[in-house]
Design goal:
Strand order of the largest sheet of chain A: 2-1-3-6-5-4
CATH class of chain A: Alpha Beta
Shape of chain A: globular
Oligomer: homotrimer
Number of strands of chain A: 6
CATH architecture of chain A: 3-Layer(aba) Sandwich
CATH topology of chain A: Molybdenum Cofactor Biosythetic Enzyme, Chain A
Structural class of chain A: alpha/beta
CATH superfamily of chain A: MoaB/Mog-like domain
Order of helices and strands of chain A: EHEHEHEHEEHH
Number of helices of chain A: 6
Strand content of chain A: 15-25%
Distance between the termini of chain A: 23 Å
Largest sheet of chain A: 6 strands, mixed
Helix content of chain A: 40-55%
Radius of gyration of chain A: 15 Å
């Protein structure tokens, strides 16, 4: 079972889900897809403000301390001046994995040309794959659906649970 | 109305259009698409030689001094040794926006596989979106047509005139 | 005639082909495509271990000393911790040429969604185009087939044998 973590950006830094609230938040979409489509377990969830240093710190803790196999971020990938999740991600990965971000933009653009505005990146820190997702539940679903079938094999290779000939 | 600027590379540094000349230059194609399809205004136009430092200086002046919302460059994106517009652009942006360049290559390749040779990049400096276009009028048209419908919304978010949930 | 070179990564650093062996190795697929589809000549072939420094040294020697027009690497582009060919490539190129890698992932993904796992990059050092290919013969064939028709023109522009208006 893959150990997955989520990082969400929120300008007001409020947790998006409280008991009894409707559950159609981006975090809930990620949780459902990870658990039901990937058979993964969400081991940690953070909501941090749109500050590069704070996002970097959250990503580093979830990789180096929690040893997540996969971190899915949501939000902060747009063009607004406060959107810095890709920059935080690029600052802490040691290898790029551009195919996931490219595939998501290409797949999402087939439905919504506006998807070309996403600045999402994807890369690797140690043995953790980090993938940026958009902030909206609809965007999360459209993007994650494009790549989720490939994630179990990707994580198996990255973590050494499966051989590869790449 | 969006404030747009153009930067053109020319090995001989000649202005491509003089009074009375035919107007099918790349600059004219950009001007028409920006004015007619985007309702934008061209506030500045520079032709600089294929020198990285000179391109950087022109981009910095058009962002920091002219406060353009959008800069469209034309030329210098090929494989020839003199082509350094992407390198100049990467040197002065503070955030990448890879979706525009990816979408243009993907869209143009559907018509002309040779479009894969384009080394164009797209990024953000401050509140200015900078997008590299090829040098030929045909290439400019094929590439700009792929993204132009998304530019008004992109610029509205980037400049803070419109909210976003990315 | 284009002067082409190959670099292959191999965990055990064994030459993949000995006299009398079956010839369906990745190197053989590259050789056939380069000679038959491009009319190119393989001037050098190296197999190096999956070590960033050794890959960098091989790429530098094949560009700066052998003056190859094109270097095709095979292997080391996956997600496994030992896969560092893209990092070695990025460290020694002076200009990026992202369209080849994007086109290969997009083309290969149409057949095999798993192609999104490829971390291949493409760039230029001096007057040498360097393109990463996957490690498997099937992956090499699927990826190289997407771009090979564009390579003669690309190399002619890069090496100055042909004019360009990019």
């Amino acid at each position: 079972m893959s150990r997955c973590a989520m990082e969400g950006c929120d300008p007001d830094c409020q947790r998006p889900r409280l008991a009894g609230e409707r559950e159609d938040t981006s975090a809930q979409v990620i949780r459902e897809l990870v658990e039901e489509e990937m058979g993964g377990e969400i081991i940690e969830y953070r909501v941090v403000p749109d500050e590069k240093d704070e996002i970097m710190a959250a990503l580093i803790e979830m990789t180096d301390y929690y040893n997540a196999d996969l971190i899915l971020t949501t939000g902060g990938t747009g063009l607004a001046p406060r959107d810095v999740t890709p920059e935080a991600t690029l600052s802490i990965v040691d290898r790029l994995a551009p195919g996931f971000a490219e595939a998501m933009r290409q797949g999402a653009m087939a439905k919504t040309p506006r998807a070309m505005l996403s600045r999402a990146v994807s890369g690797i820190r140690g043995r953790t794959l980090i993938i940026n997702l958009p902030g909206s539940p609809k965007g999360v679903h459209e993007n994650l659906a494009v790549i989720i079938d490939q994630l179990p094999h990707a994580l198996a290779i990255l973590t050494g649970r499966e051989g590869d000939h790449g």
